[in-house]
Structures are given as C-alpha cells and as structure tokens.
Design a protein that fits this description.
Chains A, B: InterPro entries: ADH-like_C, ADH_N_2, ER, GroES-like_sf, MDR_fam, NAD(P)-bd_dom_sf. Two copies of one chain form a homodimer. Chain A is an alpha/beta fold and about 350 residues long. Chain A has two domains: about 5-130 and about 310-340, Alpha-Beta Complex (Quinone Oxidoreductase, Chain A, domain 1), CATH 3.90.180.10; about 135-285, Rossmann fold. Chain A has ten helices and 15 strands.
C-alpha cells in the first residue's frame, strides 16, 4: 500500500482554452501541483482508473447545460476510482477503495464527504465500478426502463452500440425481454463483437452505407425503442422506422459534440406526430433513485455470467487527453479508461 | 326542414391527383353524383358545416401515416355537421342534428351507425361542435393535459396560436392554471386578437423577425410547456428556451406539410438531453377516452362565458378547396369552416 508521504504532488489535466469543434492537445495543460497538508476530515486518494466520458466535451463549452462548464485553468473533473493513501477522516481509513468525481489527476485530496467507499470483491476488477457496475450500466438501465419504458417483446435499436453505454444497453435490453436488438457501430471489428460477444441480433457498420438505408433493411417490422447515443443521421434513421407509440431515449448526441456551430436535425420529425412517438432526453443525475434497483439486478446478472464487457485502457495520467480524444473518435471498444500508477 | 326528395344528388370534392408540395385546384375535382335510394338502416344528411383541417393534407400523400391515404378519384372525408333529411333508421329520425366524418360534400348518405347525434342547445351554434366544443377543443385539452402534463404556474408557448386548436389551447392553458401564455401567429390582426380576445400575455408575429429571437426575448424565465402546431423554426425556437424537465406536445407541423421533399429539423435537439425534455407527438384517435372529461369541463367553461372563439366561414360546397388552401396559408382566424346550403 502506498503511503501518504509518497504522494505529496498531484499531476492534473487542466483546461487551457475552450475548444472550437474538435479539441486538440493545445486546449489542455498538464500541471503538477504540490498538495497542502491534509486538513481535518480530508482524505488523499491515489487514483487507479480515470473515466473519460463524452459529456465532458459539453462542459468544455461556456454554455448553459445541466452541469456548469469547466473553468479555464482549472482541472477537468469526472469519475475516477482509487485508494485512500492518507486520511484524517475516520469514515475512510487508509486502504479504502473510493469512487469520486474529482477526475483527471493521479492524486486527489478533498473532504471525505466527496468520496464514496466501494466494497472490494474477489474477482471483480476495480475498474468495473466506473462502467458496467457503475454509472455507465445505470445509464443504460435508466434509459431503457424509466425513459424508454421497454416492454417484453420490443424491438430495440441502439446507436453507438459498441461504446460503454451501448454494450450495457444491448445486454440489459435482452435481459429485460427485448425480442430483437439491433446495434450500430463504426468498424467491422466492433460490429462483429456486437453479435458475437454482446448478443445483438444484427449489427450495422454505419461507415458501410447510409445508416438510414441499413436500418430500414434490418428492421422490417419496425423499432419500438431507440436508445440514442449518437443523434444526427442515426436519430433520423430511427424516426423512419419507429412503430406507432415508439419510445426514444436520448442519451447522447456525440455526432454533434465537436461540430463548430449548429447542425440541422432530422428531416422527418413529423413522424413523431403521425406515429405518436415519445422522445425523452435524460441525464443521470435526476434518476439516481434507480441505483439500488439497478445494483441489485446487475449484481445478480453479473454473478450469473450474463454480462460481458470490454475495456480500452490507456496507461498514464499524462495520456488522459489522448484517451479522451480517441474515445470521441470512437477508437475504443467498450469503456475507455486511463490507468494511473502501476 | 328539407325533405328527402329535394336532395337526390350530392355534390362532392374528390381527390384528382396527389399534390406535390402545395396543393392546387387541379388536384381536386367537383363531382355531382346521383344518390341511390336509401337502404334499410341508412340516413341521408344535408350538411350545414364542413370542417377543413390541416391533417387532411397528409392524407393526400400516399405514405404510411396514422390514417390511410385518400384514394385517388374518391371523396375527401373529414368532420362535418348536418341534419338528417331522410331516414330508414329509427335511431336517427328526420330532423336530428348529426356529426360525422363523411366530409366534403353537401349531402351524404350512409349507415346510421356512422353518424352521432348532437343535442341542439339554445344559443349554441351548430358549428361549434366542429371546433371549440368538439374535436378541436379536445385536441387542445389532450395536448395540454395528457401529453404536455401542464401544471399550475407553468409558462406555456403555443405556435399557430390564432388557429382553431391554438385559440382553444391558449384559453384552456389559462383555465388550467398556466402562469404565462405566449402565442405566435402570422399577422398584426391575429396577434392583436390573441392578447385582446384570447387572454394571451404575449403574442409574437413571426413575420416581424425570426421567431427564435422573439421568443427568447418574450420568455426570459423560459418555457415549461410548448404546444407545437407548426414545427420547423418554431420548434427550434422553443427548444432554445425550454426549462429543465420541459414538455413539448407535438400536435401539428404545418410548416412541413406542403414542402416538396424533406426539410431539416431544428439544430438544437441536443437540448432535449441536457435539459431532460420530453417531446411527445399525438393524434386524437388514441385519446378519445378523455372526451367525457373534456366535455364536462368545456361545457362548464363555455356556460360561464370563459371561452371565446372565432370562425372564418366560406360559403358553398364548391368553395371547399379555396377554404382548405386559405386555411393552409393561415388566412383564417379561429376555425375555418365551409357553410353548405342556406
């Protein structure tokens, strides 16, 4: 176990400028800062894994959103998991594994109340609490159940299906009784994984042909639930094939995150009226009450070997921006993570 | 009272060709047909008023929708009200006022089961059953209550506000406790009517300046409920100002009905996610169960003098297409109706 004295500095990723369109390395700065002595009630945590997530891109813009934008010159925050290496808080002794939102740094130090302890379980990697067993899995579960009101026998389409949320959503949809699960992704390898590892009935490579044509061919009986991680042409394709009374959970619009200026929406929104569709956007913060229900079901599914996952791991805090940019470009399969330390 | 012998022919409007973009008179044909002798259980009805409605435009296209497209060479159907002039059905004796969906003709003859009798009430014009007391009022009520889940204190925006559904929606929103009601329309006269007659707090003329700018200025505290009769730039404007958890009832997209080919959608759909919005399309057929509840409340409001309305009346079955085209262009204030006979 690392000791407190060995971690008196923190290497952090700061936002140097607000990206216009695609972020570049110039928009970030790696800073190494001295950590102050621990105050009463504080803990110091050596991160093991850092999560890089699409929503982080939105917070780099100075616009109204559901979370405040990052300040210029300040550290990028987000989900991470690590181990307490120094503590003045009885609740979180040295050695405790903790989840937190302090984000992109190798060592973080803050009030104990901003960390949540995670029980260590034999054979369950720590990193899973950052995705399939954590927020990512919960996002998929909330989107399918509360937002899209998935019913047994539904046909489900999931875009960005090889991403962390997508692979979780595909499997959860199946476990909740979906009749047919269709996914889209951007490479032959991902498409193969979707059908071979994640149980999708059909997987479409959107780079092969317009997704609108591919989806129409893949869903001759229409789609009841669309879990949207992409927006843009994928939403348009889904609106073409939604069945009457269909439900769309809007979880992400990665297609629009890095465009410089607004992008027109789908040309077929009138289908929302004629087919009595419901489109509902969500972010996780308002639905954390489903966390216990999700935790109970996912623990059972996971223990029964029903849940597959992939991780794409980048080593070293100094490569966090690479990991983030690669994730935005779709270079990852499953959850993109930065591994910190050894 | 007219007698059966005086109505042995029917003048009808038939669909001659499927319009591409804006319909023209060439797409329709006026036909006068001999009526067969009444079969047992049939009634013959002399129409008093015919309703011309935006959704009719959609049925002229040969595409999948919530109702089947009109057949070429067949009569245009839709809401109408008239009086039984001949009957072999005990349930509907001569003189009974009836509502029906047989549509664009001066005289209609069919099985009695396809007509619904309407009680005549002193001082209540027959025509109101075709709009504020009928389907139009119910559409506004369903959209606000079941679809948009209007709550007391909400700020409401209604596009196409000077139309039949719009004027009903504005008044019902107020009666259900909306704090602030904003409407849009396309002429200075309509805008004045909205504030002076229909109780809108603010009315915007979308021809004066981009609706996006006007609405942002008119709704500094945002909008909780948007009742969309227009789509296009109006939906985009609303998405800009919707408050977190806001609800959009998509009732019409008249902006897109007569375009030749698809039109791009709003460029700000990502707000659906970040603000956790719900967009729900609807057509009335699935919500007729709310009819008794609406009828009870509207009767009370109407009797109390709380409900204003306007009618734009075109005389003569042969001018039905003019009325329809004028309505699509927004030439009407309130409900557009064709008056048949004297």
């Amino acid at each position: 176990m690392t000791t407190a004295t060995s971690t008196a500095t923190s290497t952090q990723i700061h936002l140097a400028s607000r990206p216009s369109g695609w972020p570049t390395h110039d928009d970030f700065r790696v800073a190494t800062v001295e950590l102050a002595p621990l105050q009463p009630g504080e803990v110091r945590v050596a991160n093991a894994f850092i999560s890089v997530d699409p929503y982080v891109r939105g917070r780099m813009n100075d616009v109204r959103s559901y979370v405040a934008p990052y300040a210029l010159g300040a550290q990028i925050t987000g989900g991470a998991i690590g181990r307490v290496v120094a503590s003045t808080a009885e609740s979180l002794p040295v050695g405790t594994v903790v989840l937190h939102q302090h984000g992109w740094s190798d060592v973080v130090q803050a009030d104990a109340s901003t960390f949540r302890s995670v029980p260590e379980r034999e054979g369950v990697p720590l990193s899973l609490s950052l995705h399939i067993l954590g927020m990512t899995g919960l996002t998929a579960y909330v989107g399918l159940t509360r937002i899209a009101q998935l019913r047994e026998g539904d046909t489900v389409f999931i875009s960005g299906a090889a991403g962390a949320v997508g692979t979780a959503a595909g499997q959860i949809a199946r476990l909740l009784g979906a009749k047919r699960v269709i996914g889209s992704a951007g490479s032959p390898e991902k498409v193969r994984l979707l059908t071979e590892k994640y149980g999708f009935d059909v997987a479409l490579n959107y780079k092969d042909a317009p997704i609108r044509e591919q989806l129409a061919a893949a869903a001759p009986e229409g789609v009841d639930v669309y879990f949207d991680n992409v927006g843009g042409d994928h939403l348009e394709a889904a609106l073409d094939v939604m069945n009457d009374g269909g439900r769309v959970a809007l979880c992400g619009a990665i297609a629009a995150y890095n465009t410089d200026g607004p992008v027109p929406g789908p040309d077929n929104l009138a289908n929302i009226i004629t087919r009595a569709l419901t489109l509902r956007g969500f972010t996780l913060a308002a639905h954390l009450d489903l966390s216990p229900e999700f935790g109970a079901r996912m623990t059972e599914w996971f223990a029964a070997g029903e849940i597959a996952y992939d991780e794409t791991i980048v080593d070293g805090i100094e490569h966090t921006v690479d990991a983030f940019l690669d994730m935005m470009r779709g270079a990852n399969t499953g959850k993109m993570l930065v591994r910190v330390g050894s």
